[in-house]
Recover the amino acids of this structure.
């Protein structure tokens, strides 16, 4: 079976949604599917047998696409629609599989070409434009809510990435089949770094011999980086050798928070690396003593949490719903989403290392049983058994009819 997949994002890029798309493609390929992926002109090459990447033409002046909604996405998504239409006119597909706002295209193109449409719902788009501070215009927010509801109602099935998204999707359309497939760790198949490599990274980043507190991910406003930085002076007053390592973010975001660290007088204890390749993630995880997720708002689960859990290190996270869907008091230190809450939670972990280590062990065991690649693959296989059954039957019937006509 050949699938046309539409992913309106840079592919591949080291951030949540592209990683989720990558994992889903790997699962589909392992089941024997072939995939034509229509995506943006941006992103690193990906070599997977069974995957053909079809990039839209580049547009002058668009050299990056920020996380979440942006004006740049409007012309890019129009091009995505044109290229997808060309693909459908030139080749036969079993069904259309879309991600994020491309669900609109799946709804329209699926109807035009008589194909089933599977919508992968990474987030509630109306919540995304609010949490990303793209707009506060109530009319625009209501319009996005309306469009999101249409996408769910007109999809033949929806895959939700976390319990809150599943609940939202069911409320939008009780009659649409909704499946929940939570993500797995992004570095599960990467080799464990040698202790010598870990020591070398600590030396290169001038992290000293004290505890290292690691954050990985984007530096968008909803990630709570400002709260994290404001918590550091309190921690340093008790634990002056602590070092904070923040991996990820666009250059302008790194510059902004670097200035904030300077204003707070904590520059000596904070290191920003910017975006780093996925292959380096196990190394950064290995150098860390505590993993941080200071998220301030949103309801969809941060992808980083699955990698954090698997790492077996103590996790400190803000106790907001997007994180407590996955984390509990048995697997993480959960604190109020304030600078003071983060500071006090950090000190508690640093001052009680045995208890902190136990949290890490519990987290790792929980990840193995709930969010590992075998679990992800099993859930994905079950969805495809149910969703693709009709398409498989139709293709088999048509092939038999064709064979009979040839014989005749």
């Amino acid at each position: 079976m050949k699938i046309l997949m539409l992913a309106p994002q840079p592919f591949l890029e080291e951030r949540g949604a592209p990683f989720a798309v990558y994992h889903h493609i790997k699962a589909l390929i392992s089941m024997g599917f072939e995939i034509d992926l229509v995506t943006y002109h941006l992103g690193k090459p990906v070599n997977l047998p069974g995957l053909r990447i079809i990039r839209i033409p580049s547009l002058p002046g668009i050299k990056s696409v920020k996380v979440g909604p942006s004006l740049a996405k409007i012309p890019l998504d129009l091009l995505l629609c044109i290229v997808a239409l060309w693909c459908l006119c030139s080749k036969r597909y079993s069904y259309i599989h879309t991600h994020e706002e491309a669900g609109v295209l799946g709804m329209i193109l699926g109807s035009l070409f008589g194909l089933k449409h599977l919508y992968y719902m990474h987030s509630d788009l109306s919540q995304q434009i609010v949490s990303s501070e793209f707009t506060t215009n109530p009319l625009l927010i209501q319009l996005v809510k309306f469009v999101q509801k249409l996408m769910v109602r007109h999809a033949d099935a929806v895959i939700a990435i976390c319990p809150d998204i599943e609940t939202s999707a069911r409320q939008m359309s009780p009659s649409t089949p909704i499946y929940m497939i939570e993500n797995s760790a992004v570095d599960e198949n990467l080799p464990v770094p040698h202790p010598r490599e870990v020591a070398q990274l600590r030396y290169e980043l001038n992290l000293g011999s004290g505890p290292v507190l690691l954050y990985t991910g984007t530096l968008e406003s909803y990630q709570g980086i400002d709260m994290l930085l404001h918590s550091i002076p309190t921690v340093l007053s008790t634990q002056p050798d602590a070092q904070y390592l923040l991996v990820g973010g666009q250059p302008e975001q790194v510059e902004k928070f670097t200035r904030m660290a300077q204003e707070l007088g904590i520059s000596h204890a904070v290191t920003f690396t910017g975006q780093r390749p996925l292959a380096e993630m196990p190394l950064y995880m290995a150098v860390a003593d505590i993993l941080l997720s200071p998220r301030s708002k949103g309801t969809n689960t941060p992808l980083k949490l699955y990698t954090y859990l698997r790492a077996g290190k103590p996790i400190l996270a803000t106790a907001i719903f997007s994180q407590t869907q996955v984390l509990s008091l048995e697997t993480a230190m959960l604190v109020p989403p304030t600078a003071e809450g983060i500071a006090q939670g950090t000190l508690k972990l640093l001052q009680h290392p045995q208890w902190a280590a136990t949290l890490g062990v519990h987290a790792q065991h929980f990840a193995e049983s709930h969010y590992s690649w075998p679990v992800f693959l099993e859930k994905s296989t079950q969805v495809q058994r149910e969703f693709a059954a009709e398409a498989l039957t139709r293709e088999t019937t048509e092939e038999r009819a064709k064979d009979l006509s040839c014989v005749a």
Q: What stands out?
A: The chain has two domains: 2-184+375-407, 195-370. The domain at 195-370 is CATH 3.40.50.2000 (Rossmann fold).
